[in-house]
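Our preliminary data section would be incomplete without showing what the modeling component actually yields. Below, a chain of 330 amino acids is followed by its predicted structure, encoded as tokens that our downstream tools consume directly.
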Amino acid sequence: MKVTLYAVTAVVLVLLTVPLAAGAPPAGKVWRIGVLGGRQAVASAESPGGASFRQGLRALGYVEGQNIVIAWRSSGRQVERLPDLATELVRLKVNVIVATDNPAIAAAQRATSTIPIVMVQAMDPVRTGFVDSLARPGGNTTGLTVQGTDVQGKALPLLKEAVPTISRVAVLWDATEPGRRVQTTEAEEAAHALGLEVHLLGMRSPAELESLFTVMARERVDAVLVHPSQMIGLHHTRLAALAAQSRLTTIGLTPAWVEAGGLMSYGPRYLDLYQRAASYVDKSLRGTPAADLPVEQPLKFPLVINLKTAKALGLTLPPTHLIQADEVIR
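Predicted structure:
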């Protein structure tokens, strides 16, 4: 059972962040929206991300089959297919391309320099060259990023406060996606500030899961910071099970980690980003150039705790954590 604390406040915050229509959608045609993603779980109408995106569009007055058509294209985790899929969307003459992740963003930018591109989960879009800056993106690309919010600088202290005895932390990250490497630098800085020894473990394939935990055991790691990515997200449940078997304290940077069995998470809800992406699509269809739309960063970072996992690990979390938590899974 999930218990949500401060429910009234949460409802108010949700209502305040739902995009409101600034009037009826631009009339006179059926608009074509292309969605390009690296895996089926994201770039499909039935996925949680797809459902949130469509909900955001409906709130702005867009109805599929009436004034919009959405072309969903997913590489099925085969990144090498993305360039062809991006080119296919260009040939369909879509009015906007929504690119869900860094590989998809890169493929979309190679395919077109004129069709507006809306990023959803961009990692470090400035350093990767997707945009000139967050305030002034330039070019034909804008949208949302999860970078630059110092989440790790707040997540790791929460982990250390929960279990003061930890001394060695592994940072599990996706080594296959552009822009992820900068996260490890931020994690190292945050960990060193707490006096923690850091072990960086880049995951390149799901086949490496067991071997990565073998490395953790060899290095006598006692805690794990799990970075979010599409590949890692697909295997959250397996990762959480392996961490539990290894008696490791964990914290993720998205609530999905706790829902899969991890101990704690501190970070944005990614489904919110998909809903917010609809507002960028709306502005693009109304004629606002991407270069004039600043890149948006998350505003809400819920702390979520799994008490079932804490009990299985024999941990008693500080009362302050339970008071601060936005959600507790019992």
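Residues 45 and 273 are 16 Å apart (CA to CA). The first strand starts at residue 2 and ends at 4. Preliminary results of this kind motivate Aim 1 of the renewal.
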